[in-house]
Amino acid sequence: MIDAYVRKAQGAARRAALSVFACVLMLVGVIFLGVAAWLVLVELRDPTFAALVMGGVFVGLGLVVLGITSMLKPRVPVAAPPPTNAVTLAALIEAFTLGLGAARSRGRRDT
Asked: Which of 32, 41, 90, 95 is the most buried (most CB within 10 A)?
């Protein structure tokens, strides 16, 4: 039983490590793309123009991501359903009246 939990934890750790590694690779790719875009923009115009364009692109992307995250609904925890063997008030009253009726029908013994 503990082995199942260990395998689950190892799988989760492996997925987390691969996700972090993928994020690092994407960050490196974005940095190279940014440098390449900077070099192209500097060749077309001057460094001030390149800085304005690059800053505008990154701010725009940040606003788009912020807008997407604001549209996401927070996860609401779902309440667990009541257990199926729970005693309800109606069942309790029914059991009481059945027992009372059985006691009355039996009659009273005098010993």
From this structure: 41
